[in-house]
Amino acid sequence: ITRILAGYHAMIAARVFNHEVLTRMASVDSVPIINMLSDKSHPLQSLADVLTMREEFGILKGKTVAWIGDYNNVARSLAEACALEGAGLRFGCPKGYGASDDELARLSSLGAATVEQTASAVEAAEGAHAVHTDVFVSMGQEAETERRLRDFEGFQVDANVMAAAEHEAIFMHCLPAHRGVEVSAEVIDGPASRVVRQAHNRMHAARGLLAFLCEVNDITKGDTQ
Q1: Catalytic site residue 134?
Q2: Catalytic residue among 90, 129, 134, 173
Q3: Would you call 173 a catalytic residue per the annotation?
Q4: Structural domain of residue 96, as residue ranges?
């Protein structure tokens, strides 16, 4: 299928459950394969996240980015992007849902100023400039809903969590969100929330990526080879 699509298009964007599908697609043809989302990562979201934080803070070096909840695909891509920017990283995850020691070491090697992990949402948010979270039950995990919601009790980003962060810290969420579950309505609808701008930046980040890939691959208008 990849070889056929590559004959029609200058690049291919795919949203898949299994990341290995993207790896196989990239191995069979030379056109760019864009990861729209996989079970392992969500790099397009991280581009929008970094863009939003750069608009807010300028450079991210010297800033601390906190992630509260499940160290999932969104968290992994966000952490990689922030590490490359030289930001400090702090994860607040329940036992069994955090990053592995190898993953923490990998993020440090990518350039993160600091990499810390705790089992407390408040501790993770302490002094952070940006506090991120995501749903506690992702696509394909619906059968685990009851157990996961129980495991994530105490990890909602609420006013108490945000109070531990930097005075002018911002809240971010890739959306859609469940008010009253992973984030309180007070936070996501409050003055610290940047979720609307973050969502808008998905378009700008994707446009930037497409422009970059077109330039790198010398793709001109009307030419798909």
Answers
A1: yes
A2: 134
A3: no
A4: 43-199
76 part of the active site: no
Rounded to whole angstroms, the Cα distance separating 189 from 66 reads: 19
CB 173 within 8 A of CB 132: yes
Residue 174 is among the residues annotated as catalytic for this protein: yes
Inside any domain, residue 222: no
Domain count, the chain: 2
Q: For residue 202, indicate whether it is catalytic.
A: yes
Q: Could you confirm whether 42 is annotated as catalytic? A: yes
Under a CB-based contact definition with an 8 Å cutoff, are residues 84 and 110 in contact? yes
Assigned domain for 112 exists: yes
Residue ranges of the chain with per-residue pLDDT less than 70: 217-225
Does one domain contain both 161 and 119? yes
* H-run or E-run covering 54: helix 43-57
Catalytic residue chosen out of the listed positions 3, 9, 15, 207: 15
For 136-181, write each residue's pLDDT tens digit: 999 889 999 999 999 999 999 999 999 999 999 999 999 999 999 9
